[in-house]
Amino acid sequence: HANRTNGIDKNVWVEFTQLAAAYSKVNLGQGFPDFAPPKFVQEAFCHALNEGPMMHQYTRAFGHVPLVKSLAKFFSRVIGHEIDPLEDILVTVGAYQALFSAFQALINEGDEVIIVEPFFDCYQPMVKMAGGQPVYIPLRPVSDGSVLSSGDWVLSPEELASKFTPRTKALVINTPNNPLGKVYKTEELQMIADLCIKHDVLVISDEVYEWLTYDGAKHVKIASLPGMWERTITIGSGGKTFSATGWKVGWAISSGHIIKHMKTIHQNTVYHCATPAQEAVARGFEREYEVFGTPESYFQQLPAMLHHKKNKLASLLKSVGLKPIMPEGGYFMTADFSSIKVDCDDPSSKDEAKDFRFVKWLIKEKGLATIPVSAFYSPEHGKEFDKYIRFCFVKEEATLDAAAEILKKWS
Ligand code: PMP
Ligand code: GLN
């Protein structure tokens, strides 16, 4: 086998999705809605399938033309920069492939990539597969007391500045963040942007949860800050945007001089993505363009619905002695389980991190699937953060109620 597969064979989604399928009654683990996407995108998909033979054939390699046009129209207004649909966008197989193409296209052997912890786990193996060197900087809770909100987790500007070296090529951020739900404020993004401009570093900004913010938090695109369009790759996901994670339509938006190199990777790997799914996402964005900012917009309806689910899950977790960190965005909630006293020393997981052992116990013994948070850290820092587990709340009321039943029984 090739050396590049060494050390990246373990994957939290593969492991915990299998465990959840085998043992759990209620799954608040892997992040996906257990309810249907909105009618208008389901209808758009059906419409695409019945639109004639061409909708079942290959389309443009770098993105179905109706989709890149609707993404350009929509995001030009959001970013405040005129986006060229053919030059500045690459449509990919989910946000995953946008990330992969970015690292492959931009990172050389030995380049350093700064990754903010906790991070969506695939950034690390993707940087390594490109020959890069991940350099980690943790978000830290402002105090060790009662940390109530993901907004209390911050970067130290001095610590971040110290991570830049002449070999730093890129920095990855994720806002709203998975798993914490942190939504970076303009000042925080400006601090990051200033350092990246000073050191001539690219920013890969994973914004798959961009429409999901709560309690007044506002999602800001780092690409919209002065001087950042030229050096930022903004990544989005049709699956997260329209609650259809199985469609696997994603995109990267950046300046044409960057996208050009990502196109080279894309044309020589997957070539292009499923045509009807792209057509459906295009129609979804056309519709959202028309109703943007009104209560009819799914980008208002989904967060409104999730706001309620988030609060419901938080009260439930508190009622059994878990300490949730309230997310400002996204669809996950992280909770401190250190006050829960259980014997979860299953012999098969003896050498594992505390949170991995606890989650395995929760799945196998109690039938409730969650995700251990140290999976979102580098091996060096995971130990400091192994008292947290992640719950997904983009779920039907009945699913959350079933989770409540389980939690209440063992508390
Ligand atoms: N980035 C983050 C932060 C995620 O949580 C996910 C999981 N959906 C992805 C990227 C990958 O998205 P997709 O399913 O569109 O490939
Ligand atoms: N992004 C989703 C999550 O964080 C799913 C990731 C995956 O299944 N690979 O749960």
Structure notes:
The protein is α/β, with parallel strands linked by helices and 411 residues long. 40% of the residues lie in helices and 15% in strands. The chain contains 14 helices and 15 strands. Strands 2-10-9-8-7-3-4 form a 7-stranded mixed sheet, sandwiched between helices. The protein has a 4-stranded antiparallel sheet with strand order 11-12-15-14, covered by helices on one side. Strands 1-13 form a two-stranded parallel sheet. Helix 2 crosses helix 10 and helix 4 crosses helix 9. Bound molecules: 4'-deoxy-4'-aminopyridoxal-5'-phosphate and glutamine. Glutamine (GLN) binds next to loops.
Count of individual beta strands: 15
Anisotropy-based shape: globular
Q: How much β-strand is present in the residues? A: 15-25%
Q: How large is the count of helical segments?
A: 14
Global mean pLDDT: 96
Report on the biggest sheet.
7 strands, mixed
Order of helices and strands: HEHHEHEHEEEHEHEEHEHHHEEHEEHEH
